[in-house]
Design a protein that fits this description.
Layout (H helix, E strand, L loop, with lengths): L2 E2 L6 E3 L4 H7 L7 E3 L5 H4 L5 E2 L3 E4 L9 E3 L3 E5 L4 H5 L8 H8 L4 H6 L2 H5 L8 H8 L2 E6 L2 E6 H7 L9 E8 L5 E7 L10 E10 L2 E11 L3 E3 L2 H7 L8 H16 L7 H20 L1
Parallel strand pairs: 1-4, 2-5, 3-5
Antiparallel strand pairs: 6-7, 7-10, 8-9, 8-10, 11-12, 12-13, 13-14
Helix pairs in contact: 10-11
This protein binds flavin-adenine dinucleotide (FAD).
Flavin-adenine dinucleotide binds next to strand 3, helix 2, helix 5, helix 6 and strand 10.
Length: 287
Amino acid sequence: MSVAVEGPPPLVYSPRSLAEALALFVPNPQAQLFAGGTAWHTEHLTTSIMLPPVTLSLHLAEDLRRITYGERSLDLGGTLSLNQLLSVGGPWVPSILKEAARVIGTSALRNLATLAGNVCQKGILGDLFPALHLLGAQFEIRNLRGSRWLTTQQVAEEGRVALAPGEILTRVRIPQEDWPQTFYQKIGNIRTPWDERLAMMGLARPKNGQLEALRLSFHLPHSGLIRIQSLEAELAGQRLPLPHRVRSQAQERVDEALNQLPVPASIFQRDRVLHMMRWILTRLDDD
Ligand SMILES: Cc1cc2nc3c(=O)[nH]c(=O)nc-3n(C[C@H](O)[C@H](O)[C@H](O)COP(=O)(O)OP(=O)(O)OC[C@H]3O[C@@H](n4cnc5c(N)ncnc54)[C@H](O)[C@@H]3O)c2cc1C
């Protein structure tokens, strides 16, 4: 990757803490954040990184890399790299998040790529987002004046993490909940044509022969995210295995949701989504 320089040389600051980074926004309100830098050339559609006049590189801000283990939630610092996330031992990081992180790029890329960089990509929701949405995560956003929390539901509705100049995504808070069954499948990667890419994920909690809770989503980059919370609520409490009628109705609801995507799904994506939906409903029967 080369760095193209035109006009006056761009300024790159490397603040050593969040406070320093926020303070740098005062004289540089339009400064751009740079975390791992692995999404920059796709965002700018060039093979070289076009640095803006002022860049804040977050790689030295150690306090943005912290992990806090709470009783009811886990807080992950925004600049944790994907490999750091993957190296957290024990049951703390939900397996669905690790599965989504493990299939992003190569290991070398995952050394650089960060959690916040993945969800803050311009124009596209990164692959970690649907998993965070199922987990009911929240994003802490800070600026010099204070902080606010953004729910993944708000982000899903807006289709992006909408940040004002001077704001930094500092932490991702994940509620600690027990999800004995996790489903994750991703087809294609960044080099695959968009109409052949998709990811499916699900969390299920069967208990005493019943489906206590189920969360499901399908992510079609460029077309949108399908999550039908009313269907999840209807399926919760059903006896397992799910009756044939209930499964067919669930398939129909997903089919309808596919028809409502802002950018229509390709025949391939539609076929795979419906196949994966059938697969999950069958796997639920196993327990
Ligand atoms: C070969 C290759 C394969 C890839 N494969 C995948 C893939 O499979 N799935 C996928 O989702 N992505 C993929 N990507 C895109 C990208 O690498 C990842 O999404 C990565 O997680 C981005 O993180 P980063 O730290 O490098 O972000 P950066 O490139 O540093 O930043 C991305 C955006 O987020 C903003 N940003 C960064 N940190 C913050 C913060 N703390 N607060 C607010 N805004 C912030 C930046 O200003 C920028 O607009 C791939 C990229 C390459 C080159």
